[in-house]
């Protein structure tokens, strides 16, 4: 290094893994054997993403910078021979993606130091990477609870196309999200509705990384593969397998617009060829399966004495006095302060008029029912039209008119009876 015997960056406590929003501090150490003229000594902390279309190429086609902070630790002057230390400290932003390194791109974080020397002199540069771990809490992923499932039905021909058959392949995982080290419980069902034995069933854990360039590049990697036996003609079988999740980067690099990562379990049948994918998520904080998920409240219990009220009467009761709703017949007001008589239980029948938005549902029309829409046999003799031979109480209750309408019907009934008596005499 010429005049420089040591030019190095050290992080406090030799820490190399950090979290978003955390501070990074360290020291720049310089040891010279001779006096060194310099214009400036700077330390830079940088985070960026680079993407290319060629594997393992560092000539990035597209770049995305997350932050870049520069600190000047020494002004123009001369570094005397000996040891020199320059402390530095940077604050990492809170919204930055986790570190990642793939075949066609990287998310990188590094600290660099520069010594600018006068013209025609050699400049010096050194850098040291650090890694950022942005935790993915799987409980924050929408619709993470439950299991991932899918199926496929495949029709095929065999015996040189003479015969046809069908296979039904189903599979599901026990959860939708996992952390490295957890076990994926996989269940596969195969129904062979043909006269030919099927091929083997294969399950693979696949990583799909999409690099956004002018023409997106997709990189597929098979991480784990397990295989099960085929199923004989006309039979069905269930295959259960366990897959241990290896150390992997988390799904969907948040705050990164150039790289997207997804994980799948691919279920495939070799013969006849059929396959489908079960999407899963890989994170850092596992799914909380012990917490009770909010459930729908149970339907309200119905009080038979009130729930089957006539919709028309309910509508009218909202417009009139509520005291006239629960009385079988109106009572004549008495001057004495005696309490009103206790209402007699009655049979309530719905009207044929369409229900209003505030009316009860159709299945609540009748209070006493043998079957929906039918009056029980014990009351089959009741009629909705008042006649002289029917007691006035029942005629009023079964009438579609308001409860006080029998006060207008009674004179008409009296005249009809009188006319009949006059004709007879």
TrEMBL record:
Domain called Arrestin C-terminal-like: residue spans: 12-137, 163-287
Pfam family, one: Arrestin_N
GO terms classed as biological process: nervous system development; protein transport
GO CC field: cytoplasm
Basic and acidic residues: compositionally biased ranges: 315-329
Disordered: region residues: 287-363
Start-end of Pro residues biased regions: 332-344
Gene Ontology MF: a single term: ubiquitin protein ligase binding
SUPFAM superfamilies membership: E set domains (SSF81296)
Cross-referenced SMART domains: Arrestin_C
Coiled coil: none
Listed InterPro entries: Arrestin-like_C (IPR014752), Arrestin-like_N (IPR011021), Arrestin_C-like (IPR011022), Arrestin_domain-protein (IPR050357), Ig_E-set (IPR014756)
Protein family according to the UniProt entry: Belongs to the arrestin family.
Protein name: Arrestin domain containing 1
Origin species: Oncorhynchus mykiss (Rainbow trout)
């Amino acid at each position: 290094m010429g005049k420089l015997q040591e030019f190095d960056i050290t992080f406090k406590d030799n820490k190399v893994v950090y979290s978003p929003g955390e501070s990074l501090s360290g020291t720049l150490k310089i040891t010279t054997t001779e006096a060194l003229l310099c214009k400036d000594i700077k330390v830079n902390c940088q985070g960026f993403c680079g993407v290319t279309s060629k594997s393992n190429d560092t000539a990035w086609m597209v770049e995305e910078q997350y932050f870049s902070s520069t600190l000047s630790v020494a002004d123009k002057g001369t570094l005397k021979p000996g040891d020199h230390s320059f402390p530095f400290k940077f604050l990492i932003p809170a919204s930055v993606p986790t570190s990642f390194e793939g075949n066609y791109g990287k998310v990188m974080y590094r600290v660099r130091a520069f010594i600018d020397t006068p013209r025609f002199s050699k400049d010096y540069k050194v850098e040291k990477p650090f890694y950022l771990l942005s935790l993915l809490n799987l409980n924050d992923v929408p619709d993470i609870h439950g299991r991932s499932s899918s199926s496929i039905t495949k029709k095929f021909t065999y015996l040189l196309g003479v015969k046809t058959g069908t296979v039904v392949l189903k599979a599901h995982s026990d959860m939708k999200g996992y952390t490295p080290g957890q076990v994926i419980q996989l269940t596969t069902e195969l129904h062979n509705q043909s006269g030919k034995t099927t091929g083997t069933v294969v399950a693979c854990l696949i990583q799909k990384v999409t690099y956004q360039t002018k023409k997106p590049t997709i990189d597929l990697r098979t991480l784990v593969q397990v295989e099960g036996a085929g199923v004989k003609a006309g039979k069905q079988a269930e295959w259960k397998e366990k897959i241990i999740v290896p150390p992997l980067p988390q799904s969907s690099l948040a705050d990164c617009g150039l790289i997207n990562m997804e994980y799948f379990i691919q279920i495939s049948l070799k013969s006849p060829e059929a396959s489908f994918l079960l999407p899963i998520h890989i994170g850092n904080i596992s799914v909380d399966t012990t917490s009770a998920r909010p459930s729908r409240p149970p339907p309200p219990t119905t009080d038979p004495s009130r729930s089957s009220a006539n919709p028309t009467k309910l509508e009218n009761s909202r417009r009139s006095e509520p005291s006239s709703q629960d009385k079988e017949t109106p009572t004549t007001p008495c001057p004495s302060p005696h309490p009103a008589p206790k209402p007699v239980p009655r049979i309530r029948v719905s009207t044929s008029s369409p229900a209003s938005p505030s009316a009860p549902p159709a299945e609540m029309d009748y209070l006493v029912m043998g079957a929906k829409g039918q009056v029980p046999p014990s009351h089959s003799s009741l009629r909705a039209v008042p006649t002289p031979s029917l007691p006035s109480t029942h005629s009023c209750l079964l009438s579609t008119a308001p409860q006080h309408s029998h006060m207008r019907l009674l004179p008409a009934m009296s005249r009809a009876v009188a006319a009949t008596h006059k004709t007879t005499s």
